[in-house]
Amino acid sequence: MKRRTFLGTLGTVSSLGTLYYTTREPVSELEVRFFLSEGASDYPGIERRVSAYLEGALEYPFWSVDVSMGGIVSTPTEDGADPVRTGRWPFTVGAGITGMGDANPARDVNVLITDGQMSKAPTGYAIPHVASVGGARHLASLEIPTDFDVYDRYTRSALTAQILLHEVGHTLGLRHEHGHIERHEGKTAVTPMVSAYAWDDEFDATSCRCGTTYPTDRDAGRLLSHRFSDCALERLTAYAGGLRP
Ligand SMILES: [Zn+2]
User: Where is the signal peptide (predicted)?
Assistant: First the structure.
């Protein structure tokens, strides 16, 4: 792919204190920007797929979504969680917001995608407005759905897309209990915030935050939703944050 921007190495000062959060009126325009590690940027077609999934998952009547590619970021490793866990990616975003860095962060969501492994947790990490996640090779092989309101098959690629949306959800204030689990044609369907936790032995929630009960038998077959649950949407309609006024 053509390298449009190169942001230099991630900030080396480990600090989560460089981000200043602002409060706005509930937003009518959501600004979402994704960035690629060097490893992630090697996959042809990844930009188009990530854009399509972010747009497809986040387009709701209560706001319009502006998704853009922010550039390529040099990272010490391709791990999905490290950029946020070490504070480097939040630092880079914070520096960009104050005009001191090369990055041009978005107001609402800044997600850095690496080629990190997706089989062992943590595969990503999020704080308000900032996230990182691995799985570029799986995202690069996604088929773009024609209808995002239809459940997707449970594949490595589709699950990786859902985990990307999961981390994006966290950046907007969503928690795991905003996720929904339901029966659909004899199978178990999960929305991004609960995702594969639904099949984790240690997952013991019996209902979502809004009180909808989860089915207890979830063994029959797995389906993935790339849209957020009604409970999550209740929270998103009240979203009033941002890194810039
Ligand atoms: Zn989570």
Answer: none
Say if 17 falls within a structural domain.
no
| 118 Cα–ligand 1 center, Å | 14
Within-domain flag for 57: yes
C-alpha of residue 229 to centroid of ligand 1, in Å: 15
Q: What is the pLDDT of residue 152?
A: 96
CB 91 within 8 A of CB 14: yes
Q: Into how many domains does the chain fold?
A: 1
Task: Report the pLDDT value the prediction gives residue 1, as an integer from 0 to 100.
Answer: 40
Reported as a single tens digit per residue, the pLDDT across 9-53 is 454 444 444 577 777 888 899 999 999 999 999 999 999 999 999
Cα of 171 from ligand 1 centre, angstroms = 10
Question: Which domain covers residue 132, as residue numbers?
Answer: 22-237
The CATH number assigned to the domain holding 135 equals 3.40.390
7 falls within a domain: no
Q: Give 41 Cα–ligand 1 centroid separation in angstroms.
A: 25
CB of 6 closer than 8 Å to CB of 225: no
Asked if the structure places residue 231 within a domain, the reply is yes
pLDDT tens-digit readout, 132-168: 999 999 999 999 999 999 999 999 999 999 999 999 9
